[in-house]
Amino acid sequence: MELTHLDAQGRASMVDVGDKAISRREAVAEVWVHMHPSTLQRILEGGFDKGDVFGVARIAGIQAAKRTAELIPLCHPLMLSKVQVELTAEPEQQRVHIEARCRLDGKTGVEMEALTAASVAALTLYDMCKAVDPAMTIEHLRVREKTGGKTGHWQHPECSP
Fold this sequence. Notes:
161 residues, alpha+beta, five-stranded antiparallel beta sheet, elongated
């Protein structure tokens, strides 16, 4: 079975996954938000009037994963069984690492959901802190690892042990 986003007339269309086998599928995406050290310190001390920056970004990422099909054309609407978004301060690198993990038992992968969760969490962090640090950067969004489906396990080459 060939998977393509083009129909017989060459027009964009959603891939038909009807004949694919159901399997446990999981994807992990990650991204880094670089910022001024004082901004990161302020986040860690709870010094933003908008509330818990990491908590709000985590919820935003989870919500975004569940709405990926509404945001990305041709994505399948999926019934995710797990969405986890973790934000970790890395003060020595002046950044926050965001990891998003999505899982389901289904016929298509969840890479787009994990990427959407990570990117929206990063954008939310930026939005909450931009008044004090508009020079923040969001860098290196990528799928780090995926499992399930026909291809099995895949890991980003830069993340291999």
